[in-house]
């Protein structure tokens, strides 16, 4: 978990010179600090650390990748919350960045985080020249026009008539893409076999659908399942939501099926990847919490 104080320990290359405040009184440096100090679950960061360990990376290498991937995630949340996207007011239990810093500085802060993320990832990739090209291709596939960016574009153009297949596809391009990057980037740099990478891909994809499905339930339940962010946005903005597309029962079944698929692939991976079981258990626990909230609603 990162705090504003911790951001000051970053290498000098990441220090942002003092800048004038925005129209809302927050400088670029303060906006980046505000974004990084948000208290999330740290799921992706810890997952990247474990994937790095299992892939044979050093603690420092895994840590840099984990920080970079977390910064990609932070940046995506800033963009998601903007008025042109979800027009959210709350994220992780406090005001969204654009609500306190203004849209212009928020966009610049997100771009600063993307730049930091690339820098950290390429720093590690330079240690593995034999695998750096494949690693760069993966980042492009997950973050670029074939991944997260297209997912967001399809999110914005979504309409209910496109149906549940489009909802699944968007989840794969957004939530799934970040999870694929989190697990597969360390694996590629560590020279993990193509067989294991395929299984890891399947795990990440299944987790992505399950994670997004549970987030969709949370959005629909509002105060019955508080998440620290603005709720009921999907129905209001006609955004992709598995519950709205399938109904609660079928959406719950889809989440359960995705988790079963992930578990089957984890079992095939074997002991080397046994540390991923902790993260699977966390998702199963979240599923149980969502089910309890549904029963109580």
TrEMBL record:
Keywords: Isoprene biosynthesis, Magnesium, Metal-binding, Transferase. Gene3D superfamilies: Farnesyl Diphosphate Synthase (1.10.600.10). One of its GO terms (biological process) is isoprenoid biosynthetic process. Its cofactor is Mg(2+). Belongs to the FPP/GGPP synthase family. Pfam families: polyprenyl_synt (PF00348). This is Polyprenyl synthetase family protein. PANTHER family: FARNESYL DIPHOSPHATE SYNTHASE (PTHR43281). PROSITE patterns: POLYPRENYL_SYNTHASE_1. The keyword Protein biosynthesis does not apply.
């Amino acid at each position: 978990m990162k705090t504003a104080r911790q951001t000051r320990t970053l290498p000098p290359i990441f220090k942002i010179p003092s800048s004038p405040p925005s129209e809302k009184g927050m400088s670029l440096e303060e906006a980046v600090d505000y974004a990084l100090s948000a208290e999330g679950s740290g799921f992706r960061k810890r997952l990247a650390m474990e994937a790095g360990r299992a892939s044979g990376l050093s603690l420092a290498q895994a840590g840099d990748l984990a920080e970079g991937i977390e910064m990609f995630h932070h940046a995506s949340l800033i963009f998601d919350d903007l008025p042109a996207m979800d027009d959210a007011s709350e994220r992780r239990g406090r005001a969204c960045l654009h609500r306190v810093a203004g849209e212009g500085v928020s966009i610049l802060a997100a771009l600063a985080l993307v730049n930091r993320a690339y820098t950290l990832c390429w720093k590690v990739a330079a240690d593995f020249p034999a695998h750096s090209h494949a690693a760069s291709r993966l980042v492009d596939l997950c973050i670029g026009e074939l991944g997260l960016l297209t997912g967001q574009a399809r999110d914005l153009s979504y309409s209910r008539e496109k149906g549940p297949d489009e909802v699944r596809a968007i989840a794969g391009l957004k939530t799934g893409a970040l999870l694929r990057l989190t697990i597969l980037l360390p694996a590629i740099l560590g020279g993990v076999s193509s067989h294991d990478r395929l299984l890891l891909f399947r795990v990440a994809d299944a987790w992505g659908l399950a994670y997004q499905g549970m987030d969709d339930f949370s959005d629909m339940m509002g105060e019955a399942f508080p998440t620290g962010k603005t709720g009921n946005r999907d129905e209001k903005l006609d955004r992709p939501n598995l519950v709205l597309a399938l109904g609660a029962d079928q959406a719950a079944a889809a989440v359960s099926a995705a988790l079963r698929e992930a578990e089957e692939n984890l079992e095939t991976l074997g002991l080397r990847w046994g540390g991923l079981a902790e993260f699977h258990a966390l998702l199963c626990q979240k599923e149980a919490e969502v089910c309890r909230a549904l029963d109580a609603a």
